[in-house]
Amino acid sequence: MNRFLKPLPWVSAALLTVSGSAAIVIDPLSWGLPVGATFRLVVLTTGTTAATSSSIGTYDTFVNTQGLSGITYNGSSLTWQALGQTAGSDPTTDATRFSSQANSVATYNLNGAQVSNTSSNPFWVTGGFSSHLAPIDWTINGSGNLEQVSGSTRVWTGFDFRGDAVTASNYDDDGNQIGTVTATLGSSATYQDYDFDSFTPIPNQTLYPYYGRAGASANGWAAIGEDSPLSTQYRMYAISGPITVTAVPEVEVVFAAAALALGGFTYRLRRSRADRVA
User: Fold this and answer.
1) Could you state, in chain order, the average pLDDT of each consecutive group of 10 residues for the chain (278 residues)?
2) How far apart are CA 118 and CA 215, in angstroms?
3) Residue 77 pairs with which residues in a beta bridge?
4) Could you tell me the residue ranges of all domains in the chain?
5) In terms of pTM, does the model score above 0.85?
């Protein structure tokens, strides 16, 4: 490349990438988002973790070791949190969580596929069934590149599509319900079930947190089962802080301006030499 035609330092990184750079640069303008729109990104981790911690901060630390700092917009890295439910943090009501505001703006995959909107297909629903517009199945692989994972990939969540933790009824020996137990990330529960066909109690049952399936766009994205021990290694979802779409100069215009500036510099240099010779 001509050394005079280097990208200008003020050209937005949303449009230009540097050869050899591991950064994944997002361009929401090419996705059809207008200038001034606010959105969030959702991503699947490439690595796996157990669900043994009851601290949501542990999962935040985990997702931020998954190469997410390599995702940039306008030259800046984004802020990420895990999507998960612990005993002390509800993803839909905890004001410190990005997930609690997920219904207020649209969410997108890293490839630009829209996952949810603010009306007909919100991120969380309070009744019925959730239907995301696309599965959350894009990740950053070990080489730092975008990759779509298998639809059967399991993901620790700790919540269902409404953001609720899994519960089970606890019965006494006579089949009377004596309460419920709950399981979230970092906590399982032992309870007694009851077989009402044989009138037999079923003691020492274990309830584990929910896990989802990355390839599901309906309620299964959040919960397809609750039968995996906490030590099981699954991936997790992560959600970004809010991102506002900004206007950026067109690449062609920038390079045209650079070429004109270079031409003017060459002309002035030649004129100066001609004047000295004269």
Assistant:
1) 40 34 82 96 98 98 94 92 98 98 97 95 85 95 92 97 96 97 98 97 98 95 97 98 82 46 48 47
2) 22
3) 72
4) 11-158+210-244
5) no
